[in-house]
Amino acid sequence: EAQVTQNPRYLITVTGKKLTVTCSQNMNHEYMSWYRQDPGLGLRQIYYSMNVEVTDKGDVPEGYKVSRKEKRNFPLILESPSPNQTSLYFCASSLTPGTGELFFGEGSRLTVL
Amino acid sequence: GENVEQHPSTLSVQEGDSAVIKCTYSDSASNYFPWYKQELGKGPQLIIDIRSNVGEKKDQRIAVTLNKTAKHFSLHITETQPEDSAVYFCAASIRGSGNTGKLIFGQGTTLQVKP
Q: Which chain A residues are within 8 Å of B96, Cβ to Cβ?
């Protein structure tokens, strides 16, 4: 089954404690992206990757890092989380970015105290 | 920067009625307009999309219309059912950095269909 898998689905942490949200896709997509969803703001892109070792900032990259060492994996790293990073996060992948279907994971709800 | 405005933010309809969600976009070069449905606890899923060379597209009870001159597009759901209750996002393509394509999403509409 074609899917994007994120972990953890739910996480409560404290300010400053580094965390990583993993993302894996099994569709051999070159393009992967991270979004955050906040009420009234829709889905905003954090970072994206066009291929292995190729990453770039999206619209709200501050406070986040990513890496793309393998085609299937695209982890999101919060080096020093702050309360304003409390949000619902989605990983997505696509065969043709901007012109074709984006496949989303089920989301990771993060709370930073 | 480029943006997509979506209205209304919430919509409540009676089962069997129609629902319409509207979006406007700012980039006149946008040429791809998908709609995503997000059910509770799930990630968004593509339900229909339209490209700029087409004015209307239908798929059973859902349809999308595009007015390139006015830079707006709409989602129409007819004969609504309780399972249509969800958050709906519109999006428009723009040219991102490095000449890559990307999607800009609207703010989302929470649709409630009352039985």
A: 48, 97-98
